[in-house]
Amino acid sequence: MKEQIHQVTLNFADGVSRSFDVAAKSTILDAALAADVPLLYQCQSGSCSSCIAQLSEGDAVTRPGASSTLLASEYAAGQRLLCLCQAQSDCTFELGYSSEIGSSVAKEVNAFVDSVERIASNVVRLTLELADGDWLDFRPGQFVQIQVPGFGVVRSYSPSSTQSNLPKLQLLIRLLPGGAMSSYLEERAQAEDVLTLSGPYGAFFLREDKRRAPHIFVAGGTGLAPILSMIDALYQSSGRKPPMLLNFGCATPDALFCLDDIELRQQWLPSLEARICVDREPEPGMHQGSPVSALRESDVSSADTVAYLCGPQPMINAATTRLIELGVNPANIFSELFVASN
């Protein structure tokens, strides 16, 4: 029996549309890549959410037996991960980025270790400098992958700096006992070491078409890194700055970091409000509880509010639910799972 074929149309944010055929048992991402459609993707296993899209017409389901990072509420609202998605009819998807973003190709570059600075009980700031002739075109929020010297593994990190800081690149890295990158940074890293990077990757980045809308940032742990990059990009942009709220949290005060950097940005940006959150032993001026619990009804006063969430999965799930309750359009909530690797 001949396998059924469906037509899938992808609408990019810049008005470009691409249509292609998909076999019923093939994933939409695989068919799109075979048709040279410029999509953002990375893991191809449903764990990074880079290939997320909004189903607007037709029927498409997650491949039987596959698991993904999508919440049940997000799936019910029409969000799909194209790497796991199979078309059940002709269907149309809306993409939250323009066609030229997906067409940018990740590349490999070399960078020298400039410094390794411990900035909290379990966090270091790694500063790199790209080798002469190498360059990275990344958007605030995207991530790079680093080959860990001597361990034969790759780790992913979002720069806390912006492209305007190049050739310098700053990363915030959580230290884990026995972790590959942690062991390298604590025991072996030296200035002028050469690291191999590739990127950029990811669909989590500052949306240019939403720069004037009120912004809410929710960050847990080293999920602060891409958020700082986004805030700096907004500061560096021309024109009026939007209202911004940053809720940043860690378990205890000794685990917090970059508080001086956040305070400095508040001096630069009068429209930026920051709430520092800890689960236990709060110091004066800190909110006791998660960055999600620090969200208030008054924080969402505009239907155009856009939110960026970065941290562990439970925080992202809770923040998404809470922001929707407060009136944020689910289509304006962007998130990136940020966890340390062993």
UniProtKB/TrEMBL annotation:
One annotated GO molecular function: 2 iron, 2 sulfur cluster binding
Alphabetized CDD domains for the sequence: BenDO_FAD_NAD (cd06209), fer2 (cd00207)
InterPro entries named in the record: 2Fe-2S_ferredoxin-like_sf, 2Fe-2S_ferredoxin-type, 2Fe2S_fd_BS, BenC-like_FAD_NAD-bd, Beta-grasp_dom_sf, Cbr1-like_FAD-bd_dom, FAD-bd_FR_type, Flavoprot_Pyr_Nucl_cyt_Rdtase
Signal sequence region: none
Domain 2Fe-2S ferredoxin-type residue range list: 6-99
UniProt keyword list: Iron, Iron-sulfur, Metal-binding, Monooxygenase, Oxidoreductase
Domain FAD-binding FR-type residue range list: 106-207
SUPFAM superfamilies: 2Fe-2S ferredoxin-like, Ferredoxin reductase-like, C-terminal NADP-linked domain, Riboflavin synthase domain-like
Cofactor (UniProt): [2Fe-2S] cluster
Protein name, per record: Methane monooxygenase
Organism of provenance: Pseudomonas fluorescens
